[in-house]
Amino acid sequence: MKYSIRNTLILIFTLLLMVGGGWLYVQNKFNDDIEAAVIEQEQLSIELEEVELAAEFFEETQAHYNQALYVRLNHPKELFPTHNSSHFYNYLQELNRGISFTNLNFAFRDSVRNSDHGIVNVEIRGEGRYENLVNYLYRIEYSRPLVKLQSVQLENITNYERLDRVNFQINLGAYYRRGEWSNYIAQLQSAGPLGNITHNPYFPLIHEVPPNDENLPEVENSRLVVLTGNRAHIVDQTGSLIRLNIGDRVYLGRLSEINLDRGEAVFQLNRGGIRDRVTLALRQE
Fold it and tell me: In the chain, fewer beta carbons within 10 Å around the N or the C end?
């Protein structure tokens, strides 16, 4: 064998021996460290995916936080100082005024106690104008005392004289302080009403015409006989002479205007939701 070939084989053998020996040394010496590094890499990959996912929702979460912070700073809430039922009753009555007034009945159901606060559960039943009830609920929601509206049930009224009113049942939860609150001073200011409500969804636009149970004058079946100042004298459907002042009731409406110059009496009628204007004259043509 040539000397050059022999040297080449020796070098190749030596290189293989060094590589194999090095690999065996690394596997035996650093095997545990390699496995730990692989596991750590997998964990870091999982954490990276979670961080990337959270970053995608950061803007949305930040917007919710800013909104919650604005509400907290601009509409702060306070807890009632005690669970005294009369104190809470007086507060609800204070809100029930003006365009927030409704006829209410209160019933205290139960009380839930926690270490630092409690909840008084109250049921309110009553009847009132829909517009007033909306203002009343608005004042409860936006006043400083923390009162949670748990449920609201409304029912329309079919009685002709009370079509603009609703029956309602409201369940409330009023939060009060318990435990150590010695350095806490609550400011329990009440909010003002929302304002005029232009639409009542519980008021039927067209409804049945009620019968004339009170035997009121029926304008269409009456005739005007005399006008004196702000009074009109008519002969009604029964042949009786009736004297009416402006604002007096007739069947389906009221006397709204008297015009002495033209010799006319004007009546505003409501025929089941259809507004009508009827005029009686002294000289019928």
Answer: C
